[in-house]
Amino acid sequence: MSVAPMVKAEAVHKSFGRLEVLQGIDLEVSAKEVLCMIGPSGSGKSTFLRCINHLEKIDAGRLSVDGELVGYQQRGDKLYELRDAEVCRKRSEIGMVFQHFNLFPHMTALDNLIEAPIRVKKESRTVAIDRGRKLLERVGLGEKVNAYPRQLSGGQQQRVAIARALAMEPKLMLFDEPTSALDPELVGEVLDVMRGLAEDGMTMVVVTHEMGFAREVSDSLVFMDGGVIVEAGNPRDVLTNPQHERTRSFLSKVL
Amino acid sequence: MANAVGLKPEAIKAVPVRHPGRWVAAIVVGAIAAYILYTVVTAIQNDHTAQGSGWAAVGHYLFNTLIFKGILVTLELTVLAMAVGIVLGVILAVMRLSPNPVMSWVSWLYIWFFRGTPVLVQIFFWFNLNLVLKSIDIGIPFTSFWLHANTNTLIPPFMAALLGLGFNEAAYMAEIVRAGIISVEHGQTEAAQALGMNRGLVMRRIVLPQAMRVIIPPTGNETISMLKTTSLAFTASVTELFTRQQQIATATYDVLELLIVASIWYLVMTSILTVGQYYIERHFARGSLRGMPLTPFQRFRRMLFTFHAPPPAPVELPVSIPRGH
Ligand SMILES: Nc1ncnc2c1ncn2[C@@H]1O[C@H](COP(=O)(O)OP(=O)(O)OP(=O)(O)O)[C@@H](O)[C@H]1O
Ligand SMILES: [Mg+2]
Q1: Once rounded to an integer, what is the mean pLDDT over residues B113-131?
Q2: Nearest-CA distance A47 → chain B (Å)
Q3: DSSP per residue over B155-219, as a string?
């Protein structure tokens, strides 16, 4: 038997009221793989990402992370909803980076990093601070330990946000358009950090509009539209030789 | 413009815009105020008291021991009632926003009832509860574990006032705290949840500290208002400031003089609270880009300036550097 994929989605459906946002998503991300998702606005990319750490509940289908169902437990042929504590524990193993950073503005950069390790993983303060400093160093912000988020540029904030997610030592990282809110000259510094992560073997699902990053860094690329995966495959193939009309017209707009 | 040698041009010197209307208004308002003040001051001056003029009596009672005792009770009642109000208010606000419908419904009902009935009625209710309920019994049904207490000993006058004021305040505080909580961007909750924090942690560590900036100013208002509302405890025969001055006035007939004494002390106490509020607001403004709230002294200076010049810009937090995002 082979190792279970890090993320496995089978016919995942999700609706908001009458709006069916995800209409059957099938995909697999194996460990150490980087998967990029592209697609027009409203196609359900964020929603799918949020389903992976159970910020949204799926309505139908199966979604599992590291071999375990997201949000449920199967006993016999029955599904049982997970208790809040279980959901939190699973979320703590998945890092998420948001378009608007969402750093905690009342805490310094370092405090942002050590909050969850101390409160959620019950780590000792010294251990958490030690790792926090190293992570800030790693994303190139060693001197900004005591800066508040509002004293940092957008690019610096996003790098702190990545470090904050890494401080929980996740097995999977989710990125939701991490560079979309940044000025063009700040995009590179964030992508560099992500590239470094990919090289270190982190499993990543990245929603992005940075086609260059998708081409160079990702192992596979998925094009979503209207709540379904229209096309998936090797990033070079999909970007240079799209098989579907919808992919072609989307790429012609963004490239 | 070309400035070949790179010198800074001379600072602008211009005749400022005159505001004659402001001066006219100031004179009219000043005249009316002076007339009212004069009438009251002379009326008190002409009153005959044991100490001579009315003002002599005011000076005499200002440092009266009974008045001081009253002040102490007023402060005690204010602090305790606000403590009850804030603690219960936070609980009610969190309950109100809870996904559990029972919680949210109970909270709604509480706020509806306690905000909808006069606080005077509530104080009176607790004060007179012993008329219908001689004792209060709490225990586990079908066992012999029962606590029994006489209503009179359980709810003395001070407690009746405290319950009335505190429970009423909680309803208002709940709404203030709720407004603070929903003012915090939802992305904050999501980021915290994504890190694996549970509801309690998210609320305590992430949402409430940020909600403080919205919660503190109206809470300061509430405290100042509470300080004065404690005078209603008079109706439950609690010996706070208002009751004390009333007691002395009944004995000496120096009614107006004692009301002035009480007013002076209420003003002194509310002024101290106002100053305290500024410093608490400044504390919770940390990490924010917005200018610091002005200290009372800065405000006063600014007020003098606005009379003929634009106000100086608010003081920036020393740590904040404005950025694009
Ligand atoms: N909480 C919600 N309630 C109702 N509708 C929602 C909710 N969240 C998302 N939607 C809707 O679901 C659809 C897909 O949203 P989603 O955010 O997943 O799109 P997206 O592909 O990430 O788009 P974008 O590129 O603009 O971020 C949109 O039409 C959106 O309006
Ligand atoms: Mg999105």
Answers
A1: 92
A2: 13
A3: S-HHHHHHHHHHHHHHHHHHHHHHHHHHHS-HHHHHHHHHTT--HHHIIIIIIHHHHHHHHHHHH
Name the 3-class secondary structure at B10: coil
Cross-strand bridge partners of residue A74? A79
- According to DSSP, the residues that pair with A232 across neighbouring strands are A222
Q: Dihedral angle at the C-alpha atoms of B271, B274, B276, B279, nearest 10 degrees?
A: -140
User: ipTM, 2 decimals?
Assistant: 0.94
As given in the structure block, the two tokens for residue A140 are 């190139």
Task: For residue B238, tell me if it sits in a domain.
Answer: yes
B287–A148: do the CB atoms touch at under 8 Å? yes
R_g of chain A, CA atoms, integer Å: 18
- Contact A184/A210 with Cβ under 8 angstroms? no
| A42 CA to centre of ligand 2 in angstroms | 7
Answer whether A211 touches B (CB < 8 Å).
no
Q: How many domains does chain B have?
A: 1
Chain A contact set for B209 (CB, 8 A): 106
Give the global pTM. 0.82
Residue owning the nearest CA to atom 31 of ligand 1: A42
B contact test, residue of A91, A96, A104 with most B CBs within 10 A: A104
User: Which 3 state secondary structure label does DSSP give B266?
Assistant: helix
Measure the CA angle with vertex B22, ends B21 and B27; round to 5°.
Answer: 100
Which pLDDT score, from 0 to 100, does residue B296 have? 66
**Contact criterion met (CB < 8 Å) for A149 and B324:** no
Cβ neighbours of residue B88 closer than 8 Å, sequence gap 6 or more: B166, B167, B170, B173, B174
CATH number for the domain harbouring residue B99: 1.10.3720.10
Residue B97: what are its φ and ψ, rounded to 5°? -95, 5
- Asked whether residue B240 is assigned to any structural domain, the reply reads yes
pLDDT tens figures, B12-25: 888 888 888 989 99
B236-295, pLDDT tens digit by residue? 989 999 999 999 999 998 889 999 999 999 999 999 999 888 888 887 776 564 455 566
Q: Is residue B153 in a domain?
A: yes
Residue B324, min C-alpha distance to chain A (Å): 7
B221-251 burial code (b ≥16 CB/10 A, e <16): ebbbebbebbbbbbbbebbbbbbbbbebbee
**Ligand closest in space to the Cα of A225:** 1
Q: Which domain holds residue B83?
A: 52-139+148-305
- CA B197/CA B236 separation, integer angstroms: 47
Residue B154: the pLDDT is 77
Return the ∠ at Cα B193 (arms to B192 and B199), rounded to 5°.
Answer: 100
Q: How many CA atoms lie within 13 A of B167 on its CB side?
A: 20
In a domain? residue B313: no
Is residue B325 pLDDT above 90, yes or no? no
